[in-house]
Amino acid sequence: MKLGARILKTGVAIVFAFYLAEWLHLPSPIFAGIAAIFAIQPSIYRSYKTIIEQIQGNVIGAVSAVVFASIFGVEPVVAGFAVIVTLLIMMKLKLTSSVSLALVTVIVIMEGQKIEAFDEFLLFAVIRFTTVMIGVLAAFIVNLVFLPPKYETRLFASTKYLQDDITRWIRLAVRQASEHTSTKQSVRTLRGHQKKLDQIYTLYKEERTYTKKALFAKKRKLVIYRQMLITTNKSLETLNRLFIHENELANMPERFHIMIQERLDFLSTYHEQLFLKYTGKLKSHHTTWIGQDEFLQRNEIMDIFADYVVEQHEREGDEEFSSYHLLHILSRILDYEENLEHLDTLITAYQAYHSSELLTERDEDNIL
């Protein structure tokens, strides 16, 4: 079990909410701690959106509680009806993300003693509402100043680590060196990691910039990272295709097997070099990736494949190898290659205008 930043933030927010409520001499500071739990978010932008929605939701919950308690009294059945009405209002206003805390506000206010004077109950409701909002405010402050997330660094490092794993499995699979069950389990695990990358990308995309220059650089980076994720997904598709057709790959004519193995080795090296290029660690004179000059062009590969299909049809009685499966593997490899080239173009264009914005090795090491 990993102790992440969000777990630490939740604990700190609860403690901060307790002390803040006690400093303001508010009764029942436990409600501030409960509110802080609901208000913790994974990013500063989401925390800002949450505090706005929580204010709206808590106001609706507090008003509903006061109205129902004033008309029907403080009874469990009345509290249930107040909760239902609050839910309907929140859903109508599309404030579903703050429903939980709004309902907590309703219950917190309506769990008070019997109403003897409306003014006293109204003061009690205001104090309880303020206590809940103190918890929300404490969570927002903690999100803002305590371990602020660096989603760009996480996104790049996680993408690189995932690609390293995929590359290792591709090199094993194309050489028929991986065990079937292990490869199957690894492909499933890698797909799960790919989905997590998409979530980190979304969080990074939500981060806000405050200058026009930074906004322009951020938009270019978003394009690059989106292409990085697409390219990583293409490499994972290639690995999956090698796994599905591992028997056909084993029975493939040797010249095709060698051609696929060499091409995947070159592409894996190319992909590794692109990560180095993005961080400025690749020498500037490497305008083309190493080994490209001695590489078969895509049209040459398709010509070889077409000649092989014709040759197979002319040979009757020979043991046939399914050209259909070979086409599946080749199509994934060529698609992977095209996306690598597009990623290379995007990185080159970005470096021409924003060389000072590149990730440094120190940034890569500071992962939350």
TrEMBL record:
Bilayer topology term: Multi-pass membrane protein
GO cellular component entries: plasma membrane
Superkingdom of origin: Bacteria
InterPro entries: ArAE_1
Name of a matching Pfam family: ArAE_1
Sequence intervals crossing the membrane: 7-24, 80-109, 121-146
Subcellular compartments: Cell membrane
Name of the protein this chain belongs to: Membrane protein
Protein species of origin: Candidatus Kurthia intestinigallinarum
Classification of source organism: Bacteria, Bacillati, Bacillota, Bacilli, Bacillales
